[in-house]
Design a protein that fits this description.
With 137 residues, the protein is mainly alpha-helical. The protein is built from six helices and no strands.
Length: 137
């Protein structure tokens, strides 16, 4: 049951990413280009995602436990730390340079682009290196 729920959640996210065109690096780069031909449409996608998350988070805080687990796994840290800030900076640079972040890049693999495949391979290598040599807190 856990795998089915995870698959359905991932599938729903992939459909949303495709419908919002977040799998198109040119659209993402246009959103990030504030001084050129700015495309604000992805801000609406992010605002909608934030609204859904905010409502969902408030609802889960009212429950004692999730439906398919014994307890909620909520973050323990309440303030940004060095690894979070460095990771956010690397994420932002990668998103701005390549026009991809992890979810949309994996979804875009179905298009068969060599550039997307190269990005995903580099992303997996980065995950491996980050686990092998974690940053000190």
């Amino acid at each position: 049951m856990h795998l089915l729920i995870a698959f359905l959640a991932g599938f729903l996210m992939s459909v949303g990413i495709a419908v919002s065109k977040m799998i198109d690096p040119a659209k993402v780069v246009a959103f990030l280009d504030l001084t050129g031909n700015w495309d604000p449409s992805l801000a609406l996608v992010m605002a909608a995602a934030l609204a859904v998350y905010s409502i969902g988070f408030r609802l889960i805080r009212q429950k004692a436990a999730p439906i398919l687990a014994e307890k909620f796994e909520l973050p323990l840290l309440t303030k940004p730390d060095k690894p979070l800030l460095i990771g956010a900076a690397i994420f932002g640079l990668g998103w701005g340079l390549a026009g991809y972040c992890p979810g949309p890049a994996i979804s875009a693999l179905s298009a068969g682009s060599i550039g997307t495949l190269g990005f995903v391979i580099a992303m997996i290598a980065g995950w491996y290196l980050a686990r092998k040599w974690p940053l000190p807190h």
